[in-house]
Amino acid sequence: MTTAAIREKLHDFINTADDRKVEAMYTLVENEIEDTYDHWEDEEFLAEMKKRIDDIENGNDEGLSWEEVKMNARNRRKLKIKH
């Protein structure tokens, strides 16, 4: 599995995990997290954001409305709760 795939799985898990699990995971990695992390200084983050904006502007990705994003998040949450 690629690092990108692992990151995506972790993001999905963290976004839907209950508070207890998130707190436990944070305890494991809190010493590794920089208190001064700035997304705007992260070249990988900036490159990803540029790619996404370019894809939308070039018509390669139509993007999602805010309502679609909220609906998708609610649906994912419902699926995770059932399991």
Question: What keyword list fits this structure?
Answer:
83 residues; mainly alpha; 69% helix
Overview of the structural elements:
It is a single chain. The chain has two domains: 1-33; 37-83, no CATH class. The radius of gyration is 16 Å and the shape is globular. The model has no long low-confidence stretch (mean pLDDT 89). The longest helix is centred in the C-terminal third of the chain and has 17 residues, at 66-82. With 83 residues, it is mostly helical. It has helices spanning 3-16, 19-29, 43-57, 66-82.
Sequence-ordered SSE layout with sheet pairings:
Elements: H1 3-16, H2 19-29, H3 43-57, H4 66-82
User: Rg, please?
Assistant: 16 Å
Please indicate the percent range of residues in DSSP E strands (runs of 2 or more): under 5%
How many helices does DSSP assign? 4
Our measurement of the CA-to-CA distance between the termini, rounded to an integer number of angstroms, reads 23 Å
Task: Report the major sheet.
Answer: none
Order of helices and strands: HHHH
- The total count of strands amounts to 0
Query: What's the oligomerization state?
Result: single chain
Structural class: mainly alpha
